[in-house]
Amino acid sequence: MKRRQTASLVLTMAMLMASPLSWAQNTGKLKIGFMLPATGTYASLGTAIENGFRLYLSEQGGKLAGRELEFVSVDDESDPSKATDNVNKLIKRDNVDVIIGSVHSGVAMAMAKAAKESGTILIVPNAGAQAVTGPMCAMNIFRSSFSNWQPGYAMGEIAAKKGNKRIVTITWKYAAGEETMKGFKDGFEQNGGTIIKDLSLPFPNVEFQALLTEIASLKPDAVFTFFAGGGAVKFVKDYSAAGLKKKIPLYGSGFLTDGTLDAEGSDAEGILTTLHYADNLNNKRDQSFRLAYAKTYKLQPDVYAVQGYDAAQMLSIGLNATKGDPKNINGFAQALRAAKIDSPRGAFTLSSSHNPVQDIYLRKVVGKENILEGVAHKSLADPGLGCKM
Ligand code: PHB
After folding, report:
1. Relative to the CA of 42, which ligand 1 atom is closest?
2. For residue 255, which atom of ligand 1 is closest to its CA?
3. Which of 123, 195, 343, 369 is placed for a possible disulfide with 279 were both Cys, Cβ 3.0 to 4.6 Å?
4. Is the CB of 67 inside a 6 Å radius of any atom of ligand 1?
5. Residue 158's domain is classified under what CATH number?
């Protein structure tokens, strides 16, 4: 054997021997940890997210960046007090490469803290807590959904433009409700409106009666609300049963009527909401997504399914750019920061704090669908306040 050949053979062998672990890590199975609610008022949201996520994976032949995948799951019960223990099960006990979760803002904040400390890639497929892409932002944390502020702000602008002057808000008293109301207030008051009262009750309480009585006596021009999942269904039904639907227009961030219309029935008819998805967007990407989702799950998709699907697309983009190495956080982040994500909602990019910059649509409930009325705010970016990276 010639000297040069011998040298290169020795070098190759040395490289293989020097990094058997990282070589195995990037070619062996990639471990994905789901931390989503499987019980409680947000259970169906968790299911839709996982369905969407798995649909994208099956379209890729069940592999990402050439790596086979394995999964572990924890039911986070949408309970922030259990979130640190739950996320540490995934990071420390199960040694996952990537975490996908969660729905509830309080849970997601605990997850972001643990992900930031451990350097594990975290993709948030719903929870809108502003801290996640604000003060807690990090190179390894991404969101495929929205910030709570975004749909609220867009509806504030619309409500003012429709001539409403005095509005009452009602929501659950935790980050998602409070931040959505803040977004609404910003959009509404910048355009000449006044919030005359902020009403709230603890999550996931659904005893709305006393608050509905108060709304009736305040006689606002309209009501703006954030509720989601099972709580949204109860609120829409109670608002109608209290006789308010005919008298005082109800506006919402779109979660009020997304994934909930079968249960809300005619009590939801005509409700206007703002969100980054609608049921009849009619772009090619959305049409094929909806068809595949309906075929696979015998269900219509909703915004949560889209966010799950896009979380998987984002993971795929990051892994392809790093040859399957989720420890290469800079490479992973640079790819996503440069990406245009081809979502069923319409293509979106990520802000420098890793939150979607996206169109927010105005939708109206017609039968069992949230029908597009128009774009409420084009390419809306969360301000990302407090993010330093
Ligand atoms: C949240 O807690 O951030 C949250 C939960 C459910 C939604 C939207 C936001 O539908």
Report:
1. 6
2. 10
3. 369
4. no
5. 3.40.50.2300
Asked if residue 127 and residue 56 are part of one domain, the reply reads yes
CB atoms within 10 A of CB 41: 23
Ligand 1 midpoint to CA 152 (Å)? 12
Tell which atom from ligand 1 comes closest to the C-alpha of 228: 10
Residues 57 and 199 in one domain: no
> Could you tell me if residue 389 is inside a domain?
no
226 and 239: one domain? yes
> Does some domain include residue 365?
no
Yes or no: say if 310 and 144 are a contact pair by the CB < 8 Å rule: yes
- Domain enclosing residue 180, as ranges: 149-275
Residues 159 and 50 in one domain: no
3: in domain: no
Radius of gyration of the chain (CA): 22
d(CA 347, CA 59): 19
Report the nearest atom of ligand 1 relative to the CA of 107: 2
Q: Is 176 in the pocket of ligand 1 (CB under 6 A)?
A: yes
Q: Residue of the nearest CA to atom 3 in ligand 1?
A: 127
The answer for 121, left when phi > 0, alpha when psi is -120 to 50, beta otherwise, is: beta
Same domain, 95 and 159: no
Ligand 1 pocket residue status of 128, Cβ below 6 Å? yes
The preferred substitution site among 36, 41, 42 for testing ligand 1, maximizing ligand atoms within 8 Å of CB, is 42
Of 230, 258, 275, the residue at which a domain comes to its end is 275
CA 355 to ligand 1 centroid distance, Å: 15
The reply to whether 154 and 265 lie within a common domain is yes
> Which protein residue has the closest C-alpha to ligand 1 atom 5?
104
Q: How many CA atoms lie within 13 A of 270 on its CB side?
A: 8
Same-domain pairing of 241 and 128 = no
104 CA from centroid of ligand 1 (Å) = 5
Tell me whether residue 361 is in a domain: no
Write the residue with the smallest CA distance to atom 7 of ligand 1: 228
Q: What share of the chain is helix, strand, coil (3-state, %, to 5)?
A: 45, 20, 30
Rounded to the nearest angstrom, the gap between the alpha carbon of residue 209 and the centroid of all alpha carbons in its chain is: 30
pLDDT in tens, the chain (389 residues): 445 554 444 444 444 444 444 445 577 999 999 999 999 999 999 999 999 999 999 999 999 999 999 999 999 999 999 999 999 999 999 999 999 999 999 999 999 999 999 999 999 999 999 999 999 999 999 999 999 999 999 999 999 999 999 999 999 999 999 999 999 999 999 999 999 999 999 999 999 999 999 999 999 999 999 999 999 999 999 999 999 999 999 999 999 999 999 999 999 999 999 999 999 998 999 999 999 999 999 999 999 999 999 999 999 999 999 999 999 999 999 999 999 999 999 999 999 999 999 999 999 999 999 999 999 999 999 999 999 98
What distance lies between CA 144 and its chain's CA centroid? 6
Q: Domain total for the chain? A: 2
Q: Answer yes or no: do 165 and 230 share one domain.
A: yes
